[in-house]
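One-letter codes give the sequence; the fold follows as tokens. An example follows:
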Amino acid sequence: MFDPTRREFAATTGMLAVAALAGCSDDDDGEEQTDFTGQDTVSVDVGAGNGLEFAPADITVDVGTTVVWEWTGQGGAHDVVAEDGEFESELVTEAGHTFEHTFDEPGTYEYVCTPHQTSGMVGTVEVVE
């Protein structure tokens, strides 16, 4: 039977905590930072978390980046609709469905899931040069 020493236990616990937090980064407001500059394509889950979230919800990308939203199948029917009318997907429930948009102009693009906007299902794409 394995009976770890205190040092072995502390080391194992520390490694597990680091692994659990890998990829998580918060700014001063506690929001996840998601800088994807330098990537040609970025994926965002639709129906993440409790089924009523985009994940990651707020991203930063370069001009020319394609964002691909992929449905998880959770939370009912969702869509991806830009507040300024720049892009709009259809309303979909099935897992694995994708919708994509290439961002050719710098700026901040706010988008929502129209059926779940009041539940906080919103996101932004910040496009930088």
